[in-house]
Amino acid sequence: MGHAASKLPSDPSAYATPFVPESSNIVPDEVTSKWRSYDYVIVGGGTAGCVLASRLSEDRGTTVLLLEAGESNDGKFFSRIPLAFERMLGSAHDWCYRTTPQQSLHERTVEYPRGKLLGGTSSINAMIYQQCDPEDFDAWETRGATGWDSNTMAKYFQKMRKDGPKVATDLDLAPVTKAFLEAAEGMGIPRKQDFNTSAGAAGAGAFYGAVDEKHDRSSPATTYLRPEVRQRPNLTIGVSVHTERVLFTLGAGGSLRAAGVQISTSRDGPKFAVGASREVIVCGGVFGSPQVLLLSGTGPSEQLEKLKIPVVRNMPAVGRGLLDHFCPGTIVFRAREGWTWDNVTQSQAHAAWALLRWLMFGTGPMSALCGQAGIFIRSDDKSLPYGPDLPVKDTFSGPKAPDLEYLIFPMGIIDYGHGFPSRGNYGVSVGVINLKPSSTGTVELRTNSVYDAPLINANYLADKSDLNVLIKAVRFLLHLVRTPPLSDALDLRNYESKPENEDYYWIGDADPDKVSDEDIEAFIRKYGQSATHPTSSARMGSDPETSVVDPRLCVHGIQGLRVVDASVFPDQVSGHPCVPVIAVAERAADLIKGVVA
Ligand SMILES: Cc1cc2nc3c(=O)[nH]c(=O)nc-3n(C[C@H](O)[C@H](O)[C@H](O)COP(=O)(O)OP(=O)(O)OC[C@H]3O[C@@H](n4cnc5c(N)ncnc54)[C@H](O)[C@@H]3O)c2cc1C
């Protein structure tokens, strides 16, 4: 039964059974029958996990246990402030993953922030609210994800508007952001009032934010798990607890069934087990979910055998097919005084005043998004100045969906937020994002412990097409920033090639008609980063060789085990993935409840 008395317990003895593990992941029925048990055990209280915990516990006769490795989101001040989300990055509430050294990036490792608290990455993200392009979901359906087409997803986008994150539609914009949108319009890119309609993502406009009426972050943790939901007697939420592995029982004819999970609060601390009479639902995110599956013996057998993990089922696709939105870092353009919001990063007095305004009135820069606006275009648009015709693969979701995004930040952001222009220097920063990459990466185990981060090889730019599309995209941006009225806001040089004393305003200072592809390529390789939207490491599909879960999100060949989070995306989305993750979890809840077939 769920534990009504103590909410958000961090001691597993409040809701689980002490357990002495053996090496096998398969446990006899006489052992599992002694465990404390819930109808559903959800592994990972992140974006998707919060949605499922809320929906599945709506029926008071159903017991649900949600297990989150991080702490509660309550009282995390910087998580609440829209403009200050980056203060959460690198904190105790970030898993602080990094990629393995990337061959294409001079062996650099790349940061991979992921939320480690209730709400998961939706508690540390930039709060951009975007449903992405309807063609994304029709492409999923075509790829074998039956039942996930755009019409179906539209119903869940609608449903989440009621109980999910609140949506702010009129957030403040800096003058330079407005100038960007006008310049884009001047180049023939249609202006968008709302990215969340059936018209799709292509166009230029200000983003809506997952921000509530008080201008606080609004996330699955603050909405689906609002206080009255947390008080439900049939819902137990365990925090600061790692799920180490799923445990299985064998049924008639050797059929495998997920029986529960093994959990702990530290590497060497005591272990506990907890049973799931109906299902274990893994919502650990794009790195956490494949890690838990691999530790449970469900993954590529040769990888598991090397780490002496007993193979429960050989599943070659676990941790394969990772897709990420890659960008050449943030490109900083020298701006003139008065157009940007640099004073928030450059002056403590200004930052303090902005914070006070946010606290007292919910207004001012702190109440606005950091990534304020987006320009979504297609790399095959012949009307736009992309420069030399470099070969690029057709990875579009459909005939209208974009494959490039320009994300506008109204201040100088150097080296991915590790620095800002000094006082008196101003900047506007742009993330140039390849939305539909061809290169795929892997998530593998480093060790056989959940306390060691997995090996994440994003494999950036392995396919030349991904490099070419970004070279074209950067050249287009260099043209765009020289278009009025944006050009009035900026103070750009026009260098033909990289200057001797390269500074953080390179490559923005490059002449778009003269800079070489090689100079742009060198910039991309030197500064390239993740746009932090990885997906597809435990893909949905019908073939167990190339996918992990079927279209009902059930793990192939195992009863009572599902995966629900960004890892199941069959392909990348042409935009920001958080809202699609929530909609996927909404539909998963209906699948589990049997409301839809
Ligand atoms: C810096 C940043 C900014 C972003 N900005 C945006 C944005 O503005 N808009 C947008 O749409 N998207 C944005 N994203 C992406 C988006 O937030 C994610 O794609 C989405 O939240 C992922 O949801 P998820 O459920 O797949 O995983 P998560 O939300 O990461 O949930 C996984 C949860 O599982 C827990 N967990 C993992 N392993 C275990 C284990 N073994 N035991 C117990 N618990 C475990 C984790 O702690 C976490 O809480 C951003 C991402 C980052 C990092």
In terms of topology, how is this protein built?
Blueprint (H helix, E strand, L loop, with lengths): L16 E2 L10 H4 L4 E7 L3 H10 L7 E4 L9 H4 L16 E2 L12 E2 L15 E2 L4 H9 L7 H14 L11 H12 L16 E4 L1 E2 L17 H4 L4 E4 L3 E9 L5 E9 L7 E11 L2 H11 L2 E2 L1 H6 L6 E2 L5 E3 L3 E2 L2 E6 L7 H4 L1 H14 L11 E5 L26 E6 L16 E9 L6 E4 L10 E3 L6 H17 L5 H4 L27 H11 L1 E2 L27 E2 L1 E3 L14 H16 L4
Parallel strand pairs: 2-3, 2-12, 3-9, 11-24, 12-25, 13-14
Antiparallel strand pairs: 1-12, 4-5, 6-8, 7-18, 10-11, 11-12, 15-21, 16-23, 17-20, 18-19, 19-20, 21-22
Helix pairs in contact: 2-15, 4-5, 5-15, 12-14
Bound molecules: flavin-adenine dinucleotide.
Flavin-adenine dinucleotide binds next to helix 2, strand 10, helix 8 and helix 15.
Protein name: GMC oxidoreductase
InterPro entries: FAD/NAD-bd_sf (IPR036188), GMC_OxRdtase (IPR012132), GMC_OxRdtase_N (IPR000172), GMC_OxRtase_C (IPR007867)
Organism: Lentinus tigrinus ALCF2SS1-6
CATH class of the largest domain: Alpha Beta
Classify the helix fraction into a percent range. Answer: 10-25%
Largest sheet: 9 strands, mixed
Low-confidence stretches: 1-6
- Bound small-molecule species: flavin-adenine dinucleotide
Count of domains: 2
The CATH homologous superfamily of the largest domain corresponds to: Glucose Oxidase, domain 3
Work out the helix count. 15
Q: What is the name of the CATH topology of the largest domain?
A: Glucose Oxidase, domain 3
**Envelope shape:** globular
Nearest-angstrom radius of gyration?
24 Å
| N-to-C CA distance | 28 Å
Strand content: 15-25%
CATH-scheme architecture of the largest domain: 2-Layer Sandwich
